[in-house]
Amino acid sequence: MGELPAAVRAALVEAQAQSSDPLVAFVYDLDALRRHVAALMADLPPGVELYYAIKANSEAPILAALAPLVHGFEISSGGEIDRLAACPQRKPFIFSGPGKLDSDLRTALSAGVEAIHLESLGEIQRLQRLARSLGRLQPVYIRINPQLPAGLTSTLAMAGTATPFGFDEADLHAAVAAVEAASHLQLQGFHVHALSHQHSVERHLQLLDFYLERWPHWRGLARRPESLVRLNVGGGIGVDYREGRRFDWARLCAHLRARLAAQAQPPLIRFEPGRFLAAFCGYYAMEVLDTKTSHGQHFLVCRGGTHQFRLPVAQGHDHPVLHLPREARATATGGKAWTVVGQLCTPKDILSRGQPLGEVRVGDLLVLPLAGAYGYNISHADFLCHPRPRQLFLDGHGSAPT
């Protein structure tokens, strides 16, 4: 996973020196986040937008850093609308996901939501009633759960199988008809988010090609097909936590550019990734509290644990670990293979196994990279009532703890 960036290292050394207790902290490199996302935006073909799914990490400094770069945000709850309301730069936002509350929909309508993704006939009826009560003509997309071609799989399927998400293609005609019959809903296009944790650019290219092949049929279900111009292809681009290989975004964009240019009436495409934008900027640092051996296995017991960084357990992997000694000394790898654990009273509190970290001492820091998305915000932070970890946001010349 490479070396720890100098700015992150300096922030951790300073935070550890200032901490009266052993340190546990998240560090987010906002400058690195901006560079990464700016490069992704630069690769986008004409007619393609990039929204950020804030469920990946909705901390205020993350949103503020991304707002000037991305085309908009994707949210899935009323609470996430509140997060956007606090962002210093207002950007368009879309509302997706199952189980939307009437209160959430009402808040979104009042906040001028750009589009709402519809998941069921019941949701169409509820949104029509709410939009009519507010006198608002609301743009909407219908979410499709298509039957996927053989071989188009990933570690987390969101479509192509029985899920609570969207309409089966067999039911799509009825969904289109229901929206067209609703006086205060305006159908603009479709939303398909089929696969998550996708590491293979080849499979993702096949998936996009499949969507574009189906597009003429989908829009042809409408009374006025020419009014349907947008296709949201979701996110789902994965992060390789084991080997560190980056998804070839530039190749994906180049393929999409050629594919759209060759299509007679291509849709306007929208991506809404979260993990692929935010993961690389974050680091979770744990101070070593104890070293021990049990039944021939070597353990590093650290401040923090999976209640603060649930990602390795959620993803089912051994997370990469970087070793930051408290005092300067040789840190050659080899020797013992360490299992990194936290403070919880459960044998499931394991962040990584078999790490060849060499000599590790109490007081050293272990730093887990790729912690910027689906780390702290999906964790059960109140379990055992441990204090919350510090969060440091590196922005230019300094850090801003929260």
Show the helix and strand layout.
Layout: H1 6-18, E1 24-29, H2 30-42, E2 48-53, H3 60-66, E3 72-75, H4 78-85, E4 93-95, H5 102-110, E5 115-118, H6 121-134, E6 138-145, E7 156-157, E8 167-168, H7 172-180, E9 185-191, E10 195-196, H8 201-219, E11 230-232, H9 249-262, E12 268-271, H10 275-278, E13 282-294, E14 297-302, H11 311-315, E15 322-324, E16 338-341, E17 350-355, E18 365-368, E19 390-395, E20 398-401
Parallel strand pairs: 1-19, 2-3, 2-12, 3-4, 4-5, 5-6, 6-8, 6-9, 9-11, 11-12, 14-16
Antiparallel strand pairs: 1-13, 7-10, 13-14, 13-18, 15-18, 16-17, 19-20
Domain Orn/DAP/Arg decarboxylase 2 N-terminal: 32-279
Family: Belongs to the Orn/Lys/Arg decarboxylase class-II family.
Pfam families: Orn_Arg_deC_N (PF02784), Orn_DAP_Arg_deC (PF00278)
